[in-house]
Amino acid sequence: MTSSTSETTSPAPVAYASGSGRRMSFAWLGVMPFLLFALLFLILPTMKIVVGSFQTNDGGFTLANIANLFQPSILSAYWISIRISLASALLGCGFGFLVAWAFVLGGLPGWIRSPLLTFSGVASNFAGVPLAFAFLATFGRLGLVTLILRDWFGINIYGLGFNLLSFGGLTLTYLFFQIPLAILIITPALDGMRREWREAAAILGASGFQYWRIVAFPILWPSLLGTFALLFANSFGAVATAYALTGSSLSIVPILLFAQIRGDVLQDPHLGYALAFGMIVVTGIANGIYIWLRARSERWIK
């Protein structure tokens, strides 16, 4: 008769907190750099901004800083920033959806997907001075595209009213990173569209338009709205590209805040805190909407 021995696997060593039986995993050490980074560069600065928005120069409590946000010049800056963010988010979401649909459901060759997503990942983070210089070299008054249109086709885009250092020019520049970001966000939602849904709609006699109107768009709608909200927040908080491209010729909130931080315009640091606090509120609402809509769309993606 053969006897069999059972092997037992010893558990991984676990550290115990002194004086208690509660387990303490060393895995927490792996996230400590991230937690420290978030504390130093996100949480503490945000708390400083919020507290400073309700303080006077001598440290007392006041609501005057928040009330000063309703000055006509500051309200105008917020309104321009909101309009640019809405325009770039709407166009970025629309074009991003069309591009993502083309290579996910549109029947394009499979080899296009990988390089396109790689480029989108790079372009969505390409901003600041390099992006501003690229657009000045392309669409500036002596830019490559401007000269080609003028010398080869007789079209003077600046004579027709185009100006890169304006609302339309800044919106066009923002689209360079807004469209790739939309592609990255919308692609997983389109990947979650099951072929069985379209086949079932076709069996029931639905046309392609009816399938998209009744089935596809209601499912994708939370993802599209969430993408729009995230693109809005991404555009509203952009400062380096706007400042490098337009300088102080276009008064938007990030540029107004940047001037306040440098101390050469408003000369009131606590009003600068209030400006930043207003941006936190706007972007926080947009990001909250994105998180909520993203959670709703994920139940269909899964």
Commentary on this structure:
- This protein is mainly α.
- It is 68% helix and 1% strand.
- The chain is built from twelve helices and two strands; from the N terminus they run E-E-H-H-H-H-H-H-H-H-H-H-H-H.
- The chain has helices at residues 32-53, 64-67, 72-104, 113-123, 129-139, 144-153, 167-191, 195-203, 208-236, 240-246, 253-262, 269-301, and strands spanning 15-16, 23-24.
- It has a two-stranded antiparallel ribbon with strand order 1-2.
- Strand 1 and strand 2 form a beta hairpin.
- Helix 7 packs parallel to helix 12 (269-301).
- The longest helix has 33 residues, at 72-104.
- The protein is globular.
- The N and C termini lie far apart (52 Å).
- The relative contact order is 0.12.
Concise summary:
With about 300 residues, the chain is an all-alpha fold. Strand 1 and strand 2 form a beta hairpin.
The poorly predicted ranges are 1-8
Helix content: 55-70%
Topology as H/E string?
EEHHHHHHHHHHHH
Strand order of the largest sheet: 1-2
Based on DSSP secondary structure assignment, what is the total number of beta strands? Answer: 2
End-to-end separation in angstroms reads 52 Å
Secondary structure layout:
Elements: E1 15-16, E2 23-24, H1 32-53, H2 64-67, H3 72-104, H4 113-123, H5 129-139, H6 144-153, H7 167-191, H8 195-203, H9 208-236, H10 240-246, H11 253-262, H12 269-301
Antiparallel strand pairs: 1-2
